[in-house]
Design goal:
Length: 113
């Protein structure tokens, strides 16, 4: 678990735990547009986000240029770029991307500016 000035992240073991973590964040006052889920597999990310009523990291968070660049990046590079777009450092992004490589799921809550 990490908190920086912009985002909070919780690493969970699976989609069920991610749904529970999203529910806890929502109960503590976060809005749907502030809660993101991220798994190594894009299909899994989409399924968890839909089930948990959370967002996926997209153009709004990344910016148009990073979103386009992600079309040409490896999945690992894309995941790190998405994590950095929410305010984490490159080093933190590398750590969390390794967690995703091991099948874990990230639940990220971002404070609105």
């Amino acid at each position: 678990m990490n908190m920086n000035s912009k985002s909070y992240v919780k690493v969970v073991q699976n989609g069920l735990q991610a749904v529970e973590a999203v529910g806890e964040l929502r109960a503590s006052g976060y809005l749907t547009e502030q809660i993101f889920v991220l798994a190594h597999n894009q299909d899994q990310t989409e399924r968890i986000a839909e089930t948990a009523n959370a967002d996926e990291i997209g153009i709004k968070e990344e910016g148009i240029f990073d979103a386009i660049a992600n079309l040409f990046r490896s999945r690992g590079d894309e995941l790190r770029a998405k994590i950095v777009s929410l305010g984490f450092t490159e080093m933190e992004a590398a750590f969390y991307e390794k967690e995703l490589d091991h099948g874990k799921v990230l639940v990220i809550a971002r404070q609105l500016p």
